[in-house]
Design goal:
Elements: E1 8-12, H1 17-26, E2 28-32, H2 42-47, E3 50-53, H3 59-63, E4 70-73, H4 83-88, E5 92-94, H5 101-116, H6 119-127, H7 130-134, E6 148-152, H8 156-166, E7 171-175, E8 186-187, H9 191-197, E9 200-203, H10 217-223, E10 228-231, H11 240-248, E11 254-257, H12 268-271, E12 276-278, H13 287-305, H14 315-319
Parallel strand pairs: 1-2, 1-3, 3-4, 4-5, 6-7, 6-9, 7-8, 9-10, 10-11, 11-12
Helix pairs in contact: 1-13, 5-8, 9-10
The structure holds NADP nicotinamide-adenine-dinucleotide phosphate.
């Protein structure tokens, strides 16, 4: 096996701690500030061969590292890694699919229930002493009973959400760019069509150009006044200004969001809304699942620099036939 200890690998400050330790025991780790290579000397930049990242690897960053061979990204979504550019240069990109699917689906269902039945608001009512002082929390207008749930992005996480939803007794429909032949759920060929056919929309699609602001004022109008929007995918998929307006004027009933357009910045107008449930991007955020994700990042880097196939290459690199040379 190659002497991995001589392989320089960049790891951003704040990276998953146990994985950083594992990487330090295997490689010559150089820490850096996320998105910023300015602290690296030209000599260091010339020698870096791998990056362990949690997103944010631009084409410019890749171009500044002439010996770069692999970007091992922590997370299944890699919209902030320029995978097309990497593939065109023969640089491998890996992500962490599967190991987080069930955790994220659990979070999606939790967020859905919190939003429809106003559970965080009810809890705040109790903690503020209002139950004793003023009486019970008001009955909720929202209920899961009789709902039809549409899923945008019926992939690994979308399917895991749908399986859970089946046990709740709701109707399920979906929109992907292509229809699946292995599911019993109603397919709709556009987002507008799906939104018009359901009253609850869950986003589990990737970020990036193809979904940018796809949930716009028209889609929200089609979802309607009983409408619930849940976003567990990426914040960029929702036009946040249109969503705020739709929540303020009753175009839809409520929203539950785990992801935001410019996180960790969340618009004050969203924070002020009583009919929005807001989580700080915690979809996969348990020790169990983050450890699995970190382990996959380490295994991908280890495989690559040992001359073996990586475990989870992204589709852009598979179709471009990116392989290790030498
Ligand atoms: P996946 O298996 O690749 O599924 C993605 C699904 O989205 C596919 O069914 C795909 O079908 C569909 N899709 C892709 N582009 C689309 C578009 N433009 N319009 C409509 N549908 C589209 O990925 P996954 O593992 O389920 O992960 C999905 C996403 O969840 C990730 O990319 C990430 O952004 C997000 N995520 C969030 C958290 C969190 O903490 N909140 C955690 C993990 C993942 P077609 O190709 O047929 O369109």
């Amino acid at each position: 096996m190659a002497d991995l200890k001589t392989v320089p690998v960049l790891v951003p400050i704040g990276f998953h701690a146990d994985s950083r330790k594992a990487l330090e025991s295997l490689f010559a780790v150089r820490e850096f500030q996320k998105r910023d290579l300015s602290e690296l000397s030209d000599d260091e930049k010339a020698r870096i061969r791998g990056i362990a990242s949690f997103g944010n690897v631009s084409a410019a960053m890749m171009d500044a590292l002439p010996a770069l061979e692999i970007v091992a990204s922590f997370g299944v979504g890699y919209d902030s890694v320029d995978a097309a550019h990497a593939a065109s240069k023969g640089i491998m990109v890996t992500n962490t699919p599967e190991v987080l699917t069930e955790e994220v689906a659990d979070t999606a269902l939790g967020l859905l229930l919190m939003t429809v039945r106003e559970l965080p608001q009810a809890e705040r009512h109790l903690r503020a002493g209002k139950w004793e002082a003023e009486g019970p929390y008001p009955l909720t207008h929202g209920t899961l009973r009789g709902r039809t749930v549409g899923i945008m992005g019926l992939g690994r996480i979308g399917i895991a959400i749908a399986k859970r939803l089946e046990s709740f007794g709701v109707e399920i429909a979906y929109f992907n760019r292509s229809k699946r032949n292995d599911v019993p759920y109603a397919y709709h060929g556009s987002l507008e069509e799906l939104a018009a056919a359901v009253d609850t929309l869950i986003i589990a699609a990737p970020g990036g150009a193809s979904t940018d602001k796809a949930i716009n004022a028209g889609v929200l109008k089609a979802l309607g006044p009983k409408g619930i929007l849940i976003n567990i995918g990426r914040g960029t998929t929702v036009d946040e200004e249109a969503l705020i307006a739709a929540l303020q004027d009753g175009t839809i009933m409520a929203a539950g969001l785990d992801v935001f357009e410019k996180e960790p910045k969340v618009p004050q107008a969203l924070i002020d809304l009583p009919n929005a449930v807001l989580l700080p991007h915690v979809g996969s955020a348990s020790h169990h699942t983050r450890n699995e994700m970190g382990n996959l990042v380490v295994q991908n880097l280890k495989a690559w620099f040992s001359g073996n196939d990586v475990l989870t290459p992204v589709p852009e690199c598979v179709s471009a036939g990116v392989r290790r040379h030498g």
